[in-house]
Automatic annotation (TrEMBL):
<feature type="compositionally biased region" description="Low complexity">
    <location>
        <begin position="754"/>
        <end position="771"/>
    </location>
</feature>
<protein>
    <submittedName>
        <fullName>Serine/threonine-protein phosphatase 4 regulatory subunit 4</fullName>
    </submittedName>
</protein>
<dbReference type="InterPro" id="IPR039918">
    <property type="entry name" value="PPP4R4"/>
</dbReference>
<dbReference type="GO" id="GO:0008287">
    <property type="term" value="C:protein serine/threonine phosphatase complex"/>
</dbReference>
<dbReference type="InterPro" id="IPR011989">
    <property type="entry name" value="ARM-like"/>
</dbReference>
<feature type="compositionally biased region" description="Low complexity">
    <location>
        <begin position="676"/>
        <end position="694"/>
    </location>
</feature>
<feature type="repeat" description="HEAT">
    <location>
        <begin position="243"/>
        <end position="281"/>
    </location>
</feature>
<dbReference type="InterPro" id="IPR016024">
    <property type="entry name" value="ARM-type_fold"/>
</dbReference>
<feature type="repeat" description="HEAT">
    <location>
        <begin position="204"/>
        <end position="241"/>
    </location>
</feature>
<feature type="region of interest" description="Disordered">
    <location>
        <begin position="644"/>
        <end position="698"/>
    </location>
</feature>
<feature type="region of interest" description="Disordered">
    <location>
        <begin position="754"/>
        <end position="797"/>
    </location>
</feature>
<feature type="compositionally biased region" description="Basic and acidic residues">
    <location>
        <begin position="644"/>
        <end position="669"/>
    </location>
</feature>
<dbReference type="InterPro" id="IPR021133">
    <property type="entry name" value="HEAT_type_2"/>
</dbReference>
<dbReference type="GO" id="GO:0019888">
    <property type="term" value="F:protein phosphatase regulator activity"/>
</dbReference>
<dbReference type="GO" id="GO:0005829">
    <property type="term" value="C:cytosol"/>
</dbReference>
<feature type="compositionally biased region" description="Polar residues">
    <location>
        <begin position="772"/>
        <end position="789"/>
    </location>
</feature>
Length: 797
């Protein structure tokens, strides 16, 4: 860094600027007096607090009260109307823009929630709305106007006539402001549907004619756009005699916005007019408008391109062949508008006005793509290849993404219209699937299953075996689209695409799915970090398996699923295990092939026998249970040793007992040293290691039982049996002073006794009593189960 004199002076200036910036912040802090004025008594009710804040509070507090007005109306409408609403009227007289906008929204909310009756609402709120319609701020005026238009929908006719229509006569005069006349135009368009025809003809239509001839083009344009609503309210006869002449005159207006409004209104009213009116009156106007559009502003072209499809459909049948061809050529010209100027120039070197013009041209081409299905009907789908295919090709390869996005949305409609000629647009489908923009791909895959089904069943050949020959590049395009979606951050597009791939069994062969898609679904399911994407891949994988016809392929994937399952962690992944088992159950119920059904049944058995891993938290307590179980056995064996020592002291005269005793000690010591030092964490399954371990344990049991076979302890056995039962019923604290050579017996039954509580829910363990060296009979064994009073069998030792 440069710490010269100039740089230091620069740092000082920056610090001074920061100090200047901080000063207003310090001055904006509230003083104790201001905080005191902003404090409100907590004991006041909601209505009393609202009245106090509207009377003595600041603007922000008053705005908060007005925003809370719908809540007050729901809670206590009578008191709110009596005490709060008068204060709101007073506050709105001097209110700022924010409070005015808040009041307009709150009044509309009260109307929508129907907190009060229509009569009460009109009596209390209507005059406030009408009073602020002509606010000097345009945004506030529009907000109150929107509220009034919603109120007109629910008010009775008499209220509308006296409170709104009668004052409107004076408000629509030329002597009033432009804002007042614009508001009158919109109110007239809303009132037409509320009155009878004679009232409309006598009181409303004269105002409409006057406003259509207004001196301001803004008023004429606004009134022209309301003629559609008026025509629907007065019927076809009055529309033909009153509205149509006004539209024809406005279509020749000097203002471009007025001509545009007249053109759009004519297009929307085509269904009302008969054939003579369309051919003799409307068609010449439309032709003139189309011819002048290229010479006028581009905004006219944008509107014309948007309504061209509807216009051609509405005038279909009255065109002469020459007129039909001229409108078709006009549409083709709009589809390529602006593309002739593309010369590879740099965007930074283009003047701003040229960039703006290119954006308008792109909007025109986008509207043309939107109207393509209507134009296919206009030329007849049989003539698509000759008349519109080149245009369709240009739209699919347009340099602007919005144009390609729109044609991707319309692709399904185009496919349905072409029907047997759908094979003509196979290449364009591949092009859009390989589009560099994911927005285009996202728009296309919304109806991808239906499009692919039409591609396979339509065309010259609908034979199932020949369906792949018509789509040679489909599979590479689909895989490339999925890889592009996976590499992006738009996981929702990836999820949608994987869901749509579930239709592929009806489109391509099972071998193609197995080698190009199934393995990919499995990889996504195992490696993708987005859960919705994993679920979509899992569901699609199951559908692929359902329709796969080769048993060996199904068996291979099922075996991989079994190894997935072995990586699940219990209990955290218990719900995933349940979902996997549910999928297998569905496959088991829906499969009809006997051989495949047998494989699925074997798979279910293998899943049940599989080893399940446990989380570290679960392992910790699982190890403690095993240690407690080990200590319990040590104590039982220690008690047995004490009994043997006592018996030895009583039988000192018999040398045979000493030998038996020493043999017993050697056997138990050998058994203790032969036990594994590490305790297994996972639940043992049907594996080779577990089988060998069980064999060693059985062998140790046999040695131990043989060592005690020749000694009889009938007198001491009852006491030993009681101690053993107490130890089984509850955990007995371990005896201190156990040495390393303490006798330990670890059997399968005793292992399951203590670990059943911490085992996974998918494993069912029976709470068995730990077996001792005395051969105590297991009471839960079905072979030995009897009545509750049955005494355990005593073994002869």
């Amino acid at each position: 860094m440069d710490f010269g004199q100039n740089s230091l002076f620069g740092y000082m200036e920056d610090l001074q600027e920061l100090t200047i910036i901080e000063r207003p912040v310090r001055r904006s802090l509230k003083t104790p007096e201001e905080i005191e004025r902003l404090t409100v008594d907590e004991d006041l009710s909601d209505v009393e607090r609202a009245v106090y804040l509207l009377s003595a509070g600041q603007d922000i507090q008053g705005t908060s009260v007005i925003a809370n007005l719908p809540f007050l109306m729901r809670q206590n409408p009578t008191e709110t109307l009596r005490r709060v609403l008068p204060k709101v009227r007073e506050a709105l007289h001097v209110a700022g823009v924010e409070m005015q906008l808040t009041a307009a929204v709150s009044f509309l909310t009260i109307l929508q929630e129907e907190s009060v009756s229509t009569h009460a609402y009109a009596h209390s709120f209507l005059q406030v709305i009408l009073l602020h319609l002509e606010h000097r701020d345009t945004g506030v005026s529009n907000a109150w106007l929107e509220t009034l238009l919603s109120v007109i929908e629910v008010l009775p006719k008499e209220t509308l006539r006296h409170e709104i229509l009668n004052p409107l006569v004076s408000k629509a005069q030329l002597s009033q402001t432009v804002q007042s006349r614009l508001i009158s135009c919109k109110i007239l368009g809303k009132l037409t549907n509320k009155f009878d025809a004679h009232i409309i003809k006598r009181e409303i239509l004269p105002l409409v004619k006057s406003l259509c001839q207004d001196v301001e083009y803004e008023v004429r344009s606004c009134m022209c756009r309301q003629l559609e609503n008026i025509a629907q309210g007065i019927g076809a006869e009055l529309t033909k005699s009153v509205v149509l002449p006004e539209l024809i005159e406005l279509s020749r207006d000097e203002g471009s916005s007025v001509r545009l409004a007249a053109f759009e209104t004519l297009v929307n009213l085509l269904d009302i007019f008969d054939t003579d009116d369309r051919s003799q009156t409307i068609l010449p106007v439309v032709k003139s408008f189309c011819e002048k559009s290229f010479k006028a502003d581009e905004s006219l072209l944008i509107s014309l391109s948007f309504h061209l499809g509807k216009l051609c459909h509405g005038l279909y049948g009255i065109f002469t062949p020459d007129q039909h061809l001229r409108f078709l050529e006009f549409y083709k010209k709009l589809c390529t508008l602006g593309l002739q100027q593309e010369n590879g120039h740099n965007d930074n070197q283009i003047p701003p006005q040229i960039l703006e013009q290119e954006k308008k041209y792109a909007s025109v081409r986008k509207n043309c793509a939107y109207n393509l299905p209507a134009m296919i009907i206009f030329v007849d789908p049989k003539n698509f290849h000759m008349e519109l295919y080149s245009t369709f090709f240009c739209l699919c390869h347009d340099p602007e993404v919005p144009v390609r996005y729109t044609i991707a949305i319309c692709f399904y409609e185009v496919s349905k219209l072409l029907n047997s000629g759908v094979y003509l647009i196979h290449k364009e489908l591949i092009t859009l699937l390989q589009d560099e923009s994911l927005e285009v791909l996202d728009a296309l895959i919304d109806h991808l299953p239906e499009i692919l089904e039409l591609m396979c069943t339509g065309g010259e050949s609908s034979v199932q075996e020949n369906k792949l020959s018509s789509l040679p590049d489909l599979i590479p395009a689909l895989t490339a689209a999925e890889q592009r979606a996976a590499a992006s951050l738009k996981w929702r597009t990836h999820e949608k695409l994987l869901q749509k791939y579930a239709c592929l069994p009806h489109i391509i062969s099972s071998d193609q799915i197995y080698y190009r898609f199934l393995q990919r679904m499995f990889t996504i399911m195992m490696t993708n970090n987005v859960l919705p994407v994993q679920k979509a891949a899992s569901r699609t994988l199951c559908i692929f398996l359902r329709y796969n016809r080769k048993q060996e392929q199904k068996h291979e994937v099922i075996q991989k699923l079994i190894e997935l399952k072995s990586t699940l962690k219990i209990p955290a992944d218990k719900h995933l295990l349940q979902q996997l088992e549910m999928c297998v159950r569905k496959l088991l119920c829906q499969e009809k092939d006997k051989d495949v059904l047998a494989i699925v049944k074997r798979t279910v058995l293998e899943l049940d026998r599989m080893e399940m891993s446990m989380d570290a938290f679960q392992k910790k307590f699982y190890e403690k249970d095993l240690l407690d179980q080990e200590k319990e056995r040590e104590e039982l064996l220690l008690f047995e040793m004490e009994q043997l020592e006592k018996e030895k002291q009583q039988n000192d005269g018999r040398p045979s007992s000493d030998k038996i005793f020493e043999k017993k000690r050697r056997d138990t010591k050998t058994l203790t040293q032969s036990l594994p030092k590490s305790i297994p964490i996972s639940v043992p399954g049907p594996s080779s290691s577990s089988s060998s371990t069980s064999k060693e344990i059985k062998k140790s049991k046999l040695i131990r039982s043989q060592s005690f076979n020749n000694q009889a302890f009938h007198a001491k056995y009852d006491n030993l049996e009681k101690c053993a039962s107490k130890t089984t019923a509850g955990y007995t604290p371990s005896v201190s002073g156990l040495t390393k050579n303490s006798v330990l017996s670890l059997t399968d039954d005793s292992f399951r006794t203590r670990s059943a509580s911490s085992a996974p829910a998918s494993f069912s363990f029976s709470p068995l009593i730990p077996s001792t060296s005395r051969g105590t009979v297991n009471p839960t064994d079905p072979k030995n189960s009897g009545s509750k009073d049955t005494q355990p069998r005593k073994a002869t030792l």
